[in-house]
């Protein structure tokens, strides 16, 4: 049985690899936190939709300061815009402003309770803040809204792995694989699961599959999977362990809805 000291950095890597969406992770120094969902002091020109479009474009090119201002302007012009609050949450997460992100995602959900992506991202925020129970609750709520979302299934499976609830984790990972067999992270999760269960060959097969279709949203995952395979195949010293991966966050559009 793999010990918890090995599991912790690996599972942080697994769940921190992405939020719902597909943008590049943030780089450079994030601005200091100044509070949650702070709106611009004056009413901006234009319309909310235009500012949302500009914000989404800025987020995709990793211009976080512009994205933040544009989402704030969109929220000022349309205080009931769940998409503006969702966008603010995505920016705050990528700036590691997790309490602010929590408030923004909660605001989005208050405006649109059916926004499954906000529930999923809220779960990742709680995980990052060390609130595992709340993370699981948020991800479970997201699955009630979208039961077959592979990324959310995978993320909840990671928490079940950390809780050592291996049957639950396996059920979620198998369902995630059925929902999207091309999602690389699922195979990394299966590799971790099978290693924990002592199913060496199944773990090898899962990590090899991950390497074949990876790296998913975090290229450093390839190195971790290679280390796992070396250990499983006896090419590494006893107790070979992957180092903790750098946390990177990914976010943009809401699945199953028109892209912003």
Low-confidence stretches: 1-17, 21-36, 236-260
Domain module count: 2
Distance between the termini: 45 Å
What is the radius of gyration?
A: 19 Å
Number of helices: 12
Percentage of residues in DSSP E strands: under 5%
Instruction: Give the SSE string.
Output: HHHHHHHHHHHH
Averaging pLDDT over every residue, what do you get?
78
Give a written overview of the molecule:
The protein is mainly α and 260 residues long. Helix content is 62%, strand content 0%. The chain contains twelve helices and no strands. Helix 4 (82-94) runs antiparallel to helix 5 (98-111) and helix 7 runs antiparallel to helix 8. It is elongated and about 65 Å long. The model is unreliable at 1-17, 21-36 and 236-260 (pLDDT under 50).
Question: What's the arrangement of secondary structure elements?
Answer:
Layout: H1 4-16, H2 48-60, H3 64-77, H4 82-94, H5 98-111, H6 116-128, H7 132-145, H8 150-162, H9 166-179, H10 184-197, H11 200-213, H12 221-232
Helix pairs in contact: 1-8, 2-3, 2-4, 3-4, 4-5, 5-6, 6-7, 7-8, 8-9, 8-10, 9-10, 10-11, 11-12
Sum up the structure in keywords.
260 residues, mainly alpha, Serine Threonine Protein Phosphatase 5, Tetratricopeptide repeat, 2 domains, disordered N terminus, disordered C terminus
Give a brief description.
This protein has 260 residues and is mostly helical.
């Amino acid at each position: 049985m793999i010990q918890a000291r090995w599991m912790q950095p690996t599972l942080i890597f697994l769940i921190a690899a992405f939020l719902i969406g597909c943008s590049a992770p943030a780089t450079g120094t994030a601005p200091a936190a100044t509070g949650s969902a702070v709106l611009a002091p004056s009413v901006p020109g234009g319309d909310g939709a235009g500012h949302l479009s500009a914000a989404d474009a800025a987020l995709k090119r990793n211009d976080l300061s512009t994205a933040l201002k544009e989402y704030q302007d969109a929220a000022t012009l349309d205080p009931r815009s769940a998409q503006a609050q969702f966008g603010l949450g995505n920016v705050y997460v990528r700036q590691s402003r997790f309490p602010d992100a929590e408030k923004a995602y909660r605001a989005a959900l208050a405006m649109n309770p059916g926004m499954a992506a906000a529930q999923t991202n809220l779960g990742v925020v709680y995980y990052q803040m060390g609130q595992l129970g709340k993370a699981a609750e948020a991800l479970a709520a997201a699955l009630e809204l979208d039961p077959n979302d592979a990324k959310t299934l995978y993320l909840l499976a990671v928490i079940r792995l950390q809780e050592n609830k291996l049957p639950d984790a396996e059920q979620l990972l198998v369902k995630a694989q059925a929902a999207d067999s091309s999602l690389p992270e699922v195979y990394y999760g299966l590799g971790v699961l099978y290693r924990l269960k002592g199913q060496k060959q199944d773990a090898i097969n899962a990590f090899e599959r991950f390497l074949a279709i990876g790296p998913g949203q975090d290229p450093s995952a390839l190195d971790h999977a290679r280390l796992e395979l070396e250990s499983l195949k006896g090419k590494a010293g006893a107790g070979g362990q992957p180092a903790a991966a750098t946390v990177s966050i990914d976010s943009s559009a809401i699945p199953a809805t028109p892209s912003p």
